[in-house]
Amino acid sequence: MTEPVRVAITGAAGQISYSLAFRIAAGDMLGKDQPVILQLLEIPPAMDALKGVVMELNDCAFPLLAGIEATDNPEVAFKDADFALLVGARPRGPGMERADLLQANAAIFSVQGKALNDHASRDVRVLVVGNPANTNALIARENAPDLDHRQFTAMMRLDHNRALSQLAEKTGKSINTIDNMVVWGNHSATQYPDLHQCTVDGQPAMSLVDQAWYENDFIPTVQQRGAAIIKARGASSAASAASAAIDHMRDWALGSDGWVSMGIPSDGSYGVEPGIVYSYPVVCKNGDYEIVQDLEINAFSRERMKTTEDELRSERAAVEDLLG
Ligand SMILES: NC(=O)C1=CN([C@@H]2O[C@H](COP(=O)(O)OP(=O)(O)OC[C@H]3O[C@@H](n4cnc5c(N)ncnc54)[C@H](O)[C@@H]3O)[C@@H](O)[C@H]2O)C=CC1
Ligand SMILES: O=C([O-])CC(=O)C(=O)O
């Protein structure tokens, strides 16, 4: 029998986790032959609700679920964790931008970065979902000096999947026919979903759509999708966010089928300020990720990549005091 791995989830009694924890326990993230121990973190007022989640997880009788730890102590939740999904944070409501959550949520990620540094497996892979995800990942990482920067990533996969879905719908083709989708930058309204590298059924995507649809429909729809869901549902995306988190971690651990978008520490590729957590096209293999290099970037793309980079620089400046 394969040894179980430890998967920590924060905000475990929240909306996203209500989907996420069950899918991980079912084997959707790490495969149908990999047992998992779930280490669930909540804040004290939500511990009763978390008890209910644990009861339901048990009631599913998942064969791969080798244990559950429910706690309000980050040091316990992250102990020996191989994977950490940092979901717990306040979500935005109607009319807010994700950056409005910066002050409310930033402190959570400095505490959790320290706890990961001191207690997690030395190979822990961290995905930050709680918003504003990129800058929260930066805060967590800067508080974990003993871990490699590359172990801290932010979720851009929901944006990537939204872009795939919009393009599939527009072209009438299935998602499987689309390759080389890219979303650059911040998980915010400045993100830049880029179709210049993308193909549908082997044909350049930009030859299948007109520039007006690309600029005035596709880009803003993907950028504003989170707000559209909040307007429609009265609450932020939950099942689709959980699904994207599973995609992100699965690909990182087991390898991606082509390009995916991940928020990762910039190494200066494409002229982006080193250190900020910026979304790049990456290929995952052998448990690691590598930025897709040498793409041709036209003036239209360059301008948008810069706008979202500038936003990340100003978010970083706003939390300077929390950076370790
Ligand atoms: N990166 C992305 O693509 C997406 C990010 N999000 C973000 O994910 C976060 C969670 O969203 P939901 O699950 O819908 O919110 P929710 O409010 O339903 O759940 C959040 C949970 O986190 C818990 N929590 C708060 N502080 C905590 C702490 N210090 N430690 C552990 N748990 C803590 C709360 O008690 C609550 O149960 C929000 O910030 C939301 O904006 C949501 C969708 C997509
Ligand atoms: O929009 C929000 O606040 C939640 C989120 O990050 C998303 O759905 O992309």
Automatic annotation (TrEMBL):
The EC code for this enzyme is: 1.1.1.37
Does Oxidoreductase show up as a keyword for this record? yes
What chemistry does it catalyse, as a reaction equation? Answer: (S)-malate + NAD(+) = oxaloacetate + NADH + H(+)
Q: Which GO terms describe its biological process?
A: malate metabolic process; tricarboxylic acid cycle
Task: Please indicate if the UniProt record lists NADP as a keyword.
Answer: no
Gene3D superfamilies from the UniProt entry: Lactate dehydrogenase/glycoside hydrolase, family 4, C-terminal, NAD(P)-binding Rossmann-like Domain
Sorted alphabetically, which CDD domains does this protein's record hold? MDH_chloroplast-like (cd01338)
- The Lactate/malate dehydrogenase N-terminal domain covers which part of the protein? 5-150
Q: Which residues form the Lactate/malate dehydrogenase C-terminal domain?
A: 157-318
Q: Where is the active site?
A: 187 (proton acceptor)
Database matches in SUPFAM superfamilies: LDH C-terminal domain-like (SSF56327), NAD(P)-binding Rossmann-fold domains (SSF51735)
Binding site residues for NAD(+): 11-17, 105, 112, 129-131
- Amino acids binding substrate: 92, 98, 131, 162
Q: Which InterPro entries match?
A: L-lactate/malate_DH, Lactate/malate_DH_C, Lactate/malate_DH_N, Lactate_DH/Glyco_Ohase_4_C, Malate_DH_type2, NAD(P)-bd_dom_sf
The task this protein performs is described as:
Catalyzes the reversible oxidation of malate to oxaloacetate.
Provide the family line: Belongs to the LDH/MDH superfamily. MDH type 2 family.
- Spell out the protein name for this chain: Malate dehydrogenase
* Provenance organism: Abyssibacter profundi
Tell me what gene encodes this.
mdh
